[in-house]
Design brief:
The chain contains 12 helices and 11 strands. It has a 7-stranded parallel beta sheet, with helices on both faces. The protein is an alpha/beta fold.
C-alpha cells in the first residue's frame, strides 16, 4: 500500500536522502520514530502528531519522510527490531507493526554504532568526539545523504558541573565537527555547556533544543498564558509525574530530575511573569512502562480575591508523543541547513520546554512563529529578509578544546 503524497515535501530519490542520526538510537523514542516513519511512508498509518504534515507546511520543501535514513549511537546492544517488539507488547506500537516494518528497523539497526563512554572506557573526551564524528561522516557517505541531522533522544543526564563535558556535549561537538546540524530533544546539557559557545557560533550550523515539550509542560504553556490574559492571579502551581521506562529510571536520580524540572519551571515563570509557589515531583513507577500520568494543582484568585482551584490530569505515552516531533524537527532543521540558516533556531521553540534563543513561551505565540518559519523555508521569506541568520551565542567564551576532559558516562 503506497503512502499519500506529503503536503510539505517532494518526491524522494537517492540524491535527496536526508540522514537522521539519533543519540540513544536503540531507545523507545528512537524505535518509535523509525517504525513510525516507515509506517507512514508505507501508508499503514496516518501522520498523527506530525505538525509538518499539516497544510501550513505545504510548499516548505521539507525532505520527504520516504527520504529519511536512520542511524545513530547507543551504549546498549538490544537490536532495534527487538526494541520495537517490546514496545508493541507494551501497547506503544500497534500490534503487527514491528513485523510490517522489519526491514526498515533492521536497516536502521545496521547503522547504529557504539556510543560512550562505555564502562571501563579509557578514551579521552577528545578521542570520543573524534570517533563519534567519524561515525557520523561515514554514515552520511554510506547512505548517500545530502546532509544529516543529529538528534539527541537519549535518557536525561544530571546537570553538568565544572568544565568537564558530559556525554551529551561530546555528541554535540561531534555533530558540529561532522558538519551536521544538531537538535537536543532532551534536558541534558548538549550545546548549552559554556565552553562550547565559541565552537557552536563558529560552526555555521543551525541547531535547536532543549527538552521536547510533549505532555505536562505542553499543557502548562497553554494554561499559563490563559491565566495571564484573563488577569487571574496564580498563587501556587504544583505537579506530580508518575512514569516508568528508561526515562523514569534515569529521572529517579535527583540531579537528572532537576535538569528536567528546570524547563517546566521556566515555562511557568515566563508565561505568568513571576515565580509562584509549588514544585514538580517525578516518581519512577516501572510498572507503567512507557506511559506517564501527570497531575497539576493550580491555586488562583479571581475577582475580589475569591479563591479557586484548577486540577488537570494528563495520561499519555511519551514515545508516541515524542516520535512525531523528532521527525518534524529532523525535517525542519535539515531544510534550514539546506537554505544556509545558522545558529539557534528560535522559531522552533514551539517544540521545546527550554528553547534556544529569545522567544515567547506561550504555545499560541510559539505556533505563530513556527508558521512564519514555515513560510520562510519556502525560500521566499516575507520582505526578502536574509536567508542566512546567525543566532546569538551563549555569553561564555571558553574554547571547546576542553573536550579533552571527559564527563560522566551516558545513561539510557
Amino acid at each position: 500500500m503506497s503512502a499519500s503524497p506529503s503536503p510539505a515535501s517532494s518526491p524522494s530519490s537517492a540524491a535527496s536522502r536526508t540522514g537522521v542520526w539519533l543519540i540513544g538510537a536503540r531507545g523507545s523514542v528512537a524505535a518509535t520514530a523509525v517504525a513510525g516513519c516507515a509506517a507512514v511512508t508505507a501508508g499503514l498509518h496516518r501522520p498523527t502528531g506530525m505538525v509538518t504534515e499539516t497544510p501550513p507546511f505545504t510548499g516548505s520543501a521539507l525532505p520527504a519522510l520516504s527520504a529519511l535514513v536512520f542511524g545513530g549511537h547507543d551504549t546498549v546492544d538490544c537490536p532495534l527490531p527487538k526494541r520495537a517488539e517490546a514496545l508493541a507488547a507494551g501497547g506503544v506500537l500497534p500490534p503487527g507493526l514491528p513485523a510490517a516494518v522489519a526491514a526498515e528497523l533492521a536497516a536502521a539497526d545496521r547503522e547504529i554504532r557504539p556510543g560512550g563512554p562505555l564502562p571501563g572506557d579509557t578514551r579521552s573526551a577528545g578521542e570520543l568526539v573524534t570517533a563519534f564524528a567519524a561515525d557520523i561522516r561515514d554514515f552520511v557517505r554510506r547512505s548517500g545523504a545530502a546532509r544529516a541531522v543529529v538528534v539527541n533522544v537519549a535518557s536525561t543526564e544530571p546537570l553538568a558541573t565544572g568544565r568537564d563535558l558530559p556525554p551529551s556535549s561530546l555528541y554535540a561537538v561531534a555533530a558540529l565537527r561532522a558538519g551536521c546540524p544538531y537538535v537536543n530533544f532532551t534536558p541534558s546539557t548538549g550545546l548549552h555547556h559554556p565552553s562550547l559557545a565559541t565552537e557552536a557560533a563558529a560552526g555555521g550550523l543551525p541547531h535547536a533544543g532543549r527538552d521536547g515539550k510533549t505532555g505536562q509542560t505542553l499543557l502548562r504553556s497553554v494554561l499559563g498564558p490563559m491565566f495571564t490574559q484573563r488577569a487571574l492571579t496564580v498563587r501556587a502551581w504544583s505537579g506530580t509525574n508518575l512514569l516508568g521506562g528508561g526515562d523514569g529510571a534515569a529521572l529517579a536520580d535527583p540531579a537528572a530530575a532537576a535538569a528536567k524540572n528546570a524547563g517546566k519551571e521556566r515555562v511557568l515563570a515566563d508565561t505568568l511573569g513571576a515565580t509562584v509557589e509549588g514544585e514538580v515531583h517525578i516518581d519512577d513507577v516501572p510498572a507503567l512502562g512507557d506511559f506517564k500520568t501527570a497531575w497539576d494543582h493550580i491555586a488562583f484568585d479571581g475577582f475580589l480575591g475569591t479563591r479557586m482551584i484548577l486540577q488537570t490530569i494528563w495520561q499519555g505515552c511519551d514515545s508516541a508523543l515524542a516520535a512525531p516531533l523528532v521527525l518534524d524537527l529532523a525535517r525542519l532543521v535539515a531544510r534550514s541547513h539546506e537554505l544556509g540558516l545558522t545558529g539557534p533556531l528560535r522559531e522552533l521553540g514551539f517544540y521545546f520546554k527550554d528553547p534556544v534563543g529569545d522567544g515567547p513561551s506561550g504555545l499560541g505565540d510559539q505556533y505563530a512563529e513556527l508558521l512564519g518559519f514555515a513560510h520562510r523555508l519556502r525560500g521566499r521569506p516575507p520582505g526578502d529578509d536574509a536567508t542566512e541568520r546567525v543566532g546569538p551565542a551563549d555569553p561564555a567564551a571558553d574554547s571547546a578544546d576542553s573536550a579533552d576532559s571527559a564527563g560522566a558516562g551516558e545513561r539510557r
